[in-house]
Amino acid sequence: MTQERAFKFDELIKKEIGKIIFDMLDTEPGVLVTVTRVITNSNLFTAEVFVSTYPSEKAPEVLKNLDRLIYEIQQLLNKKLKVRPVPKIIFKYDKNPEEASKIEGILKEIEEE
């Protein structure tokens, strides 16, 4: 699979899983869950789906709920995608947004000095 095609496939999975999570995941008010990126294995059997949460303290709870719903999410993804085989999804927590926020804070502190 070419690199461009792999990128488009990852974006398609990201978009569809984002919609599914929005409809299925029941979070408490004030908790935001975002699918940040998807990395599909080169053999297309697995896809790592990275999610971030706001506030970040709710991440373990959100990942637990996603893992509990993974069978239903996978079934809906199988129905929506016209590709065979549909990769098995694995949810992982994405720390990049938190790290970027910390770096921005440090840079602001340096600027103010």
Overall description:
The protein is built from 4 helices and 3 strands, in the order H-E-E-H-H-E-H. Helices cover 53% and strands 21% of the residues. Helix 1 crosses helix 3. It has 113 residues and is an alpha+beta fold. A hairpin with a 5-residue loop joins strand 1 and strand 2. It has helices at residues 3-24, 59-68, 70-80, 96-112, and strands at residues 32-40, 46-54, 88-93. The radius of gyration is 16 Å and the shape is globular. It has a single domain (3-112), classed as GMP Synthetase, Chain A, domain 3.
Blueprint (SSEs and pairs):
Blueprint: H1 3-24, E1 32-40, E2 46-54, H2 59-68, H3 70-80, E3 88-93, H4 96-112
Parallel strand pairs: 2-3
Antiparallel strand pairs: 1-2
In a few lines, what is going on in this structure?
With 113 residues, this protein is of the alpha+beta class. The chain has one domain (3-112): K homology (KH) domain (GMP Synthetase, Chain A, domain 3, 2-Layer Sandwich).
Beta-strand percentage? 15-25%
CATH architecture: 2-Layer Sandwich
Highest-level CATH class: Alpha Beta
Q: Give the end-to-end Cα distance, rounded to a whole number of Å.
A: 50 Å
Task: Count the DSSP helices.
Answer: 4
Radius of gyration: 16 Å
Stretches with pLDDT under 50, minimum 5 residues? none
Question: What oligomeric state best describes the polypeptide chains here?
Answer: single chain
SSE ordering: HEEHHEH
Helical coverage, percent range: 40-55%
Write out the strand line-up for the largest beta sheet, numbering strands in chain order.
1-2-3
**Class of secondary structure makeup:** alpha+beta
| CATH fold title | GMP Synthetase, Chain A, domain 3
Main beta sheet: strand number and arrangement?
A: 3 strands, mixed
**Would you report the number of β strands?**
3
Number of domains: 1
Mean model confidence by pLDDT: 83
The name of the CATH superfamily reads K homology (KH) domain
The gross shape turns out to be globular
